[in-house]
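Consider this today:
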Amino acid sequence: MSSPIMPLRLISLLLFNIFCIFLVIVFYYILPNNIWIYFVRMWALGNIKIIGIQIIDDGIQNPYIEKNAMVIANHISWLDIPILYTKHSVSFIGRAEIKRWPLINLLVKSGGTIFINRERKRDLVHINKVVSTELSKGATIGLFPEGRTGNGLQLQAFKPSLLESTIIAKSTIIPLVIQYYTLDGELTTKITYEGNTTLWQSIKNSLSLNGILVKITSLPRVNAGEFTNREELAQFLHQQINNCLIGNNS
């Protein structure tokens, strides 16, 4: 049985996001791009407050705007992206065809998305050149190296392909570990967005908890330029994040 607060949260979430869509439509072509850094953060903070999320971090103070950095994290839920937006100004990587979608293209572009042609997925040289160029120009990019969502209990293998761009650009990698708990402090998988779970089901499951604790652990930063290849870098990052997950879950 759902909480009586759940329908109110759902309606508030819907109205808030409609309002944000309106702001994007009206102001995206008027205001300078750097304004949207703070718009996206406002959008993320608004959604998190409505859903009832409390973020618990390790107290490490990092600048919101970084230069030539890649923020990586384990991937569990649709909530991961707004949570990362509250910690760092990041651009994610999206399919090039999204730019042709009316309305959606503005929403995605306002978040600083880097578009790549997924039909050329095998052309790693081209994709990594695009991403490394953005990094070298000062971008901070968000990446989930697992490539898909998991249950939050076990870490899936990392896909190393896009990590090549950080080696080329000699970027700083900022590893984060995300974990979700109920308000009673119990680790929960209810918010996961894996397997056959639809986005709508994941949203309803998240709201039904009537409050979520999110623990974010910042791991030591990594200088990608110190690694000779992306496989070695992926293996190192996977080990660091996996060790943290195991330690926190024990």
About this structure: The chain has one domain: 5-249. Strands lie at 53-57, 69-73, 93-95, 114-116, 140-143, 172-181, 212-218, 222-223. The chain has a mean pLDDT of 86. Helices lie at 5-27, 35-51, 80-87, 104-110, 124-136, 164-169, 199-208, 230-249.
